[in-house]
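Weekly sync, protein design subgroup
Attendees: M.S., D.O., the rotation student, P.L. (late)

Item 1: inverse folding check
M.S. brought a backbone from last month's batch and wanted to see whether the design step gives back something sensible before we order anything. D.O. pointed out we never logged the input encoding, so this time it goes straight into the notes. Structure tokens as presented (404 positions):
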């Protein structure tokens, strides 16, 4: 009897769990299709490279015979290259090979096309023919680029995203100074996101506090003003800041009229304009989580601190502020992560030296169709964000435990 009852209870619990899973299954499927799968595919593209091997199968397979990497390979590899050049020229895929090699070796496009045009129908010594067509084929760097593009797996894009590369022998080295830009761009991205987050916190904390302590009849109209940016197009809001911040804009005209400045300030197409415009766009994302936490803080704690002799400033700093930390943590984290991926606002309001990593991802995706590089930059940004998120949660969690 007891065993039968336990069995029925287990079955009932199992049916309840299956029912609960059935309710959330559509949401899990939606998240998998729209979130997990695209991110996994992005990370796959950062290390998967079959573009060259698809059009030059012979030479990419023959590269395994290249033993002395301080010099050009043997005749076998040159013969394979000649065959692939002829076939890809007939199939009109020569541009694909040239584009892929040009990612790694400057001038590869002219090298490939000039060699293909000068290639005879047959030859007994393809090494001499190809080197005569273009002496650059003697450079081990050219063959190292072909080897790195042979696929199917490659570290080229990820290394380039970190301003690194491999020499013909396979050892890591720093990329040339004129090509080392991505770590600087990544640092700029985090710097702008951090500045915007700090500005949103400084401006949003008083607003959230005011909304939390005001009576509802006064707080609701103010809340509508906070929500107003959500009802306006991002492009419209950014364009409005271009009008406001330009040399003849309202901000400079007002400062000139008041006598604060003698000549217009440069507030647009620089870092100042980017931070101002992004702060305006992202401010509600900090105010709303902070307000929801502040609204749940009972006034009795402050009254108790005051009744025990604490000054209002001390009571606010030591009693009220610690209780707002969950809202501060949620708001700043949300704002920071959103700021990392911003593209339109820096593109319209910032200058050439203010573009964030999203600009380069969009460039490689739409302009040069270099999916590997775009995926590598996205993967580096994702990993860096996850690392900072982990550190941030540990710091905030430790602070909350101490306050608790």
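Designed sequence read out in the meeting:
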């Amino acid at each position: 009897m007891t065993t039968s009852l336990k069995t029925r209870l287990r079955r009932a619990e199992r049916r309840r769990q299956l029912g609960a899973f059935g309710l959330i299954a559509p949401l899990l499927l939606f998240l998998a299709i729209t979130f997990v799968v695209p991110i996994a595919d992005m990370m796959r593209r950062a290390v998967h490279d079959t573009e060259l091997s698809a059009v030059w199968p012979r030479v990419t397979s023959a590269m395994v015979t290249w033993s002395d990497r301080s010099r050009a390979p043997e005749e076998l590899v040159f013969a394979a290259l000649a065959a692939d050049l002829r076939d890809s020229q007939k199939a009109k895929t020569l541009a694909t090979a040239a584009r892929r090699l040009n990612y790694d070796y400057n001038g590869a496009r002219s090298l490939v096309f000039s060699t293909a045009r000068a290639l005879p129908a047959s030859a007994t010594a393809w090494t001499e023919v190809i080197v005569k067509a273009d002496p650059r084929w003697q450079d081990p760097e050219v063959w190292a680029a072909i080897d790195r593009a042979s696929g199917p797996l490659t570290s080229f894009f990820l290394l380039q995203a970190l301003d690194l590369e491999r020499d013909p022998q396979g050892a890591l080295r720093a990329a040339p100074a004129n090509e080392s830009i991505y770590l600087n761009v990544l640092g700029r991205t985090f710097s702008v996101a951090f500045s915007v987050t700090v500005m949103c916190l400084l401006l949003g904390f008083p607003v959230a506090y005011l909304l939390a302590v005001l009576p509802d009849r006064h707080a609701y109209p103010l809340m509508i003003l906070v929500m107003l940016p959500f009802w306006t197009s991002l492009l419209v809001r950014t364009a409005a800041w271009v009008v406001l911040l330009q040399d003849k804009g309202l901000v400079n005209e007002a400062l000139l009229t008041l006598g604060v400045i003698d000549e217009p300030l440069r507030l647009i197409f620089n870092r100042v304009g980017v931070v101002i415009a992004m702060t305006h766009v992202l401010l509600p994302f900090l105010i709303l989580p902070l307000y929801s936490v502040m609204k749940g803080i009972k006034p009795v704690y402050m009254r108790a601190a005051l009744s025990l002799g604490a000054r209002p400033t001390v009571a606010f700093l030591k009693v009220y502020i610690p209780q707002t930390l969950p809202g501060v943590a949620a708001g700043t984290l949300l704002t920071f992560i959103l700021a990392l991926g911003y593209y339109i606002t820096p593109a319209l309001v910032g200058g050439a030296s203010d573009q964030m990593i999203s600009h380069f991802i969009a460039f490689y995706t739409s302009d040069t169709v270099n999916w590997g590089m775009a995926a590598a930059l996205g993967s580096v940004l994702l990993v860096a964000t996850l690392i900072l998120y982990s550190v941030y949660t540990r710091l905030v969690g430790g602070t909350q435990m101490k306050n608790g």
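Discussion: DSSP finds 19 helices and two strands in the chain. Residues 229 and 281 are 7 Å apart (CA to CA).
Action: P.L. to compare against the previous round before Friday.
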